[in-house]
Amino acid sequence: MTNQKSKIFQGLSRAHEIYSNREQRVRELKATGKKIIGYPCAYVPLEMLTALDLVPYRIYGSIKEPITEADRALPTSFCPFIRSCLDRALKGKDDFLDGLVTAHSCDPQHRTAHIWESCVKYSYTHFIDMPGTVRADSLEYFRGQLGDFKKTLEAFTGKKMSVDKLKTAVKSHNRQRALVRELYELTKPIPPLVSGTEILQVIKAVMSLPVTEGNELLTQVISEVKNRQNGPAEKPARLLIWSSTLDDTDIMQIFESGANVVMDDSCGGFRPFRAKVKLTDGPIDGLADYYLKEITCARTFRQATLGETTKNYARDLQSRFGYFKGIVKDWKINGAILLLVRYCDPFAFEMPALKDYLNSIGVPSTYIEYDYTIGALAPLRTRVEAFLETIS
Amino acid sequence: MYFAGVDIGSTMTKVVLMDVDGTILSTIKGPTGPEHRQLANEVMRMALEQAKVPLKEVAYIVATGYGRLNVPFADRQITELTCHATGVYSLFPNARIAIDIGGQDAKCMKINNGKLVDFVMNDKCAAGTGRFLEVIAATLGIKLEDLGALSLKSTKRVSISNVCTIFAQQEIAARLSEGEKAEDIIAGMHDALASRVVTLARRFKIEPDVVLTGGVAKNSGMVNAMRENLGCEILVPPDPLITGAMGAAILARENYNKAISQGEPVATKSRRLDKATFFSQ
């Protein structure tokens, strides 16, 4: 039955189907005895779940669902994304999850994690502590944390996480990252062969599947897009979207009504896939290195040089945001939208420096704040349209 | 040949009809009300009647404002940010900063070489918009148009600590019962609103000329409060309500000329002043 379905729905149409109904595949897998582990953040090392044959499932909030339950557990002036995630959990959505893994990526996630674990019953929970910086001692600490994660996973599954299993998992997830990079290559042409809306659906779909099924879907999508005749129409603006979470196509479509979104740095998009895990002998040290250093989230404090007594702002900007230079050139980006979620301090504090950096490389940008609800969309539309009018 | 700009704001709908030289032939202003979709065609009709211009001689129409998507007879929608900047620049060729305080939002626009280059908006909090003054005027039992003159009689400013419009209303009622005068309270309110808008404007380097538009600019007390808070001269157009519609009409002419010069067809579909309907079947 499943095979027949995947013949009818392939590539982009399958991605759209999964995007609209994310639980279907994991519920099928659960019925065959697989354990599904939810995680709300890109910092959780999925390879360690895959290595023990657990199915990682990315948890998202929903901008369309009014928050009704989370207010009894969390303050209102608080990250609306995590509030929405907890709200859905309290309502029993995603009740197919056997476990929950959270990370100390930011304060809201840290504080909510413990409330979440006590309010909702899972067979397995784990909180990964994470340092805020990327220095050598931070990496050592984080390696230790991943060692603890390995232990609790082994206790939960009753299986040993052998080096071979973990290396195989690293290769599969690296393969996924390579496929996603290949997909984003297809937005380089003018006009791009695939839209930001379609990519968002594909990524969200991939994050709802075991890694090998996600890789299969990506392969289908890439082949379909390369051969398609009916790609997006050319628009005058080619945009980069920078954000924490951008996980609903309604938001993306506001950007794409007047522009081509050709690149993003967001957790629902390219951020978890840009770099690759170095396959070390450990291989946990390679994983620690990748997850702490290579995920370009504003929660991580990066400084140009430790111990400098005077700071060089330009060099600091270059070390924090220099990866955008090549991207802007290769994808011919002529505008950037910095999309902030209300109350998100890490991204709000990062934004002015990023704006300075983008100005220095000649990319006009505007910042837009949304409160992760559907009511926010009309003012968003005006700001986006006005910004596009200034750069056209 | 004529061009029209239709600006559907949250409180007021404005139409400006212009000829090829930029001369304004008619201006219509009316309250938007809850059914602005039904209104756009009516105000357009009135503008045409006033100027004695037949619809078929209007070559291009631009709609702007938050209701801009509900003008089915418009050729193009352009945001009010670009339209205000264009309108202000046409009246004040040295304008660098335009500040528009409307019914439910406040916008600051940076203008360079006559074009909008950057902007910042407040549409999250009524305390920084015209709505704030409406609520306060109602609380004091005073007409909105009388606020300015009354505030100039003030001898001391009563400051209200609450930043929220609704809670400020409560505080004012308390102050009144303690014997504070209405004009002193109004002066305090003007100062509070001005300081909030100026905080927004200071995201940009303030350079002359600074122009203030929007219904609130008709309030002389507010203009003074803005001058004081900004620390520089502020220019106000003779009709501060229509800069958006003016800018839209100017952009209508620009878009028409551009289309003609590029050999693109201009929508001279037989235009009908249809009411907007919600659902396109």
Query: Stretches of chain A where pLDDT falls below 50 for ≥5 residues?
Result: none
Q: How do the helices and strands follow one another from N- to C-terminus of chain A?
A: HHHEHEHEHEHHHHEHEHHHEHEH
The oligomerization state is heterodimer
Return the CATH class of the largest domain in chain B.
Answer: Alpha Beta
Counting DSSP E segments of at least 2 residues, the number of strands of chain B comes to 10
In DSSP terms, counting alpha (H) and pi (I) runs of 4 or more, how many helices of chain A? 16
Global Rg of chain B: 20 Å
Annotated CATH homologous superfamily of the largest domain in chain B? ATPase, nucleotide binding domain
Count of folded domains of chain A: 2
Largest interface (C-beta under 8 Å): A-B, 9 and 15 residues
Strand content of chain A: 5-15%
The outline of chain A comes out as globular
CATH architecture of the largest domain in chain B: 2-Layer Sandwich
CATH topology of the largest domain in chain A: Rossmann fold
Main beta sheet of chain A: 4 strands, parallel
Question: What would a concise description of this structure say?
Answer:
The complex is a heterodimer of chains A (392) and B (281). Chain A has 392 residues and is α/β, with parallel strands linked by helices.
